[in-house]
Amino acid sequence: MVTSQVIGIDVGGTAIKLGRFTADGTCLQSLIVAAPQPTTPEAVLALIVDAIAQIDPDNQTVAIGVGTPGPADATGRIAKIAINLPGWRDVPLADWLETKTGKPTAIANDANCALLGEAWLGAGRHFQNLILLTLGTGVGGAIILNGKLFVGHQGAAGELGLISLNPDGPICNSGNHGSLEQYACVTAIRRRTLKEPIELGFLAQEGDAAALTFWQEYGKNLGIGLTSLIYVLTPQAIVIGGGISGSFEFFLPAVKAEIEKRVQPLSRVGLQILPAELGNFAGIVGAAKLAWQLYSGF
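and the corresponding structure tokens:
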């Protein structure tokens, strides 16, 4: 008897990743395919269906989970919007895939999938209450409370990078001014230093004083932003992912110092701040977990 398996899918603007997983999280096969250009919903659907046939030629999978670069509705059926993908507004992606494959399908925001992955097999696996920040082109976020992903009544909760840090700061694509994202994303680092984060990381490794000072200031701003999140959510752990997390060791001390200074001890008892462990693999791992939850009913 063949053990049941699921497929986890991570949809991005340049690549679409797929993995076939067993119930214990073992990835039996993975596949990365270039995203169609333009990345319209119909073109992505066709590509996913073809890729599923490649990764599951013997039709052994029982469910599908998909992470999309934007919010899904609270039921995990509709991709509400993906601002960097053309035509992605209220796309009934779960219905489409179920019709094409005959397999039950659930979708979620890609940051939510990343946190599900880290909570299942990565840095968050020992915690029931945790949050994730992904530091990259933007600052994404996700929340797990009492072991369950929290998405809010409309499915759009967890936009942790959009909280206000400075009311007079740079304007954000969200319409906010001075959001945490505007101080912690790649664009913010370029604006401030005229350098790429990876370059600043290399310089810090070499002991460059200016780079080390920059990461201290970066950590201070990130710590101030995390202060608000800690007071509201009192997580057991904060997982930091995304490309900028490669310099975690250089900004972590300032993050911790700011939190210790600003957050009363009762709200941060036992709090751990951890680097993500799954890297670019987190999305498909979390999408697979989403599929298992759908298949098992919880």
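(Above: one complete record from the training split.) The longest strand covers residues 27-34.
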